[in-house]
Design a protein that fits this description.
The chain is mostly helical and 493 residues long. It is built from 20 helices and three strands. Strands 1-3-2 form a three-stranded mixed beta sheet. Helix 9 runs parallel beside helix 10.
Length: 493
Amino acid sequence: MSADVAFTELMDYQRQTEALAQVMGRLSWDQETVMPRGAAEQRAEEMAALEGVLHARRTDPRLAEWLELAEPEDEEDEAQLRLIRRSHERATKVPGRLAQEIARVTSAAQGIWAEARAADDVSMFLPTLTEVVRLKREEAAALAGGRDRYDALIDDYEPSATAASISAIFDRMRPRLVALREAVLGAEVQPQPLTGHFGLEAQVRMARDLAATFGYDWTRGRMDMAVHPFSSGSGSDVRITTRVVEADPFNCFYSTIHEVGHAAYELGIDPDYALTPIGAGVSMGVHESQSRIYENQLGRSRAFTGWLYGRMSERFGDFGIADAVAFYATANRVQSGYIRTEADEVHYNLHIMMRFDLERGLIRGTLEPEDLEEAWNTRFLEDFGVAVDRPSHGMLQDVHWSVGLFGYFPTYALGNVYAGCLMKAIRAAVPDLDDQLARGDTSGATGWLRENLQRHGGLYRPHETVTRACGFEPTEEPLLDYLEEKFRGIYRL
């Protein structure tokens, strides 16, 4: 078999694998949005069956033969081969039985977690969490091959990152974040909260308008409700979800903008890469940089919130905020809340640091699931100065552990770090950015991101993707500088 034939056969085979993975993703979307509650047990079996098919394809001996013979002609071919080889090597380390069992258990766990969260009852979820942790420890051990087990799981979401490298970043970030938080919470000037009632239908209409404002392509997407907002899909079918709290429209609006950032990344990838390994976001850290920059650096900027204040005043009338300047402060109000997804920019990374330490302990075996609630509550009180009042505000608030996403959490903070660097580059490249945002025009920023980062998909490695876009090596400094300038200004420090 010639190198050309080997590469062609490999890519044809991989395209089918990628298509099947998209089908599995659509089943997950369905489960979290519109699936009947009574279908959970059957869906778990369906997910396990499909995972079995995918695992068999990813470990097929022909892959090794094709990879040995195929030769790349350009950097795109090189990236395709690198990612297929990586997937094949990882898949062959995990027994098919284990891969299917993880898919089955985590599928069923989503519904159990949601019911436990609604009932504020950890005991309803603990047996399932214990089983998920057992399976993920087994998977981590298989992947690690003697390395750190938690590092092996991080590699699924941020290739080449390690617990040590992430800890070093967090150690550098924490002092400045804590100092800024203490200064802000002790400031004499405190923004007003929103007051009033904001109906579900009106919020959804506004959320749809905001999605369009940030460039969401409704011909290739849709928006639904979910307990925990997420984005799903790639190529020409990328869906978003949001949630509504009628006393807090920011929950809906900024969740929507956040998920549009994820969706825009997938929709912005070169269409020639569709249904190939490089036809998706390169890592969750880079993915999160897109959602966080859409939500925060753009969506919560002084310029854009001025525009949003006018639109909300038209839709909802008086909601207790006197003018656009006060609204900007309200949209960026800092408080020690329980919920990560609702956390302000000052507190958000502290939430991630806590979860990083806890889940690392769960995978390494230094923390057992039955001790997680106490560990969570103790750490939360230490870090945030507030006692957790109920489980849905504590260890039950996030969906991630129920679905086995151990190693995912630190990528949220890495995404913020990347976003800080990208925003510095955008401001240099788009000098009239604030004038555009004040008109509700996000195209200068989103167009820059599409051209310089999103279109490349998985062509480059994560760190290289951000470095090429920014023109400099990413560090945490631009993010911390941005946060200090922004919040010291708002709180007149």
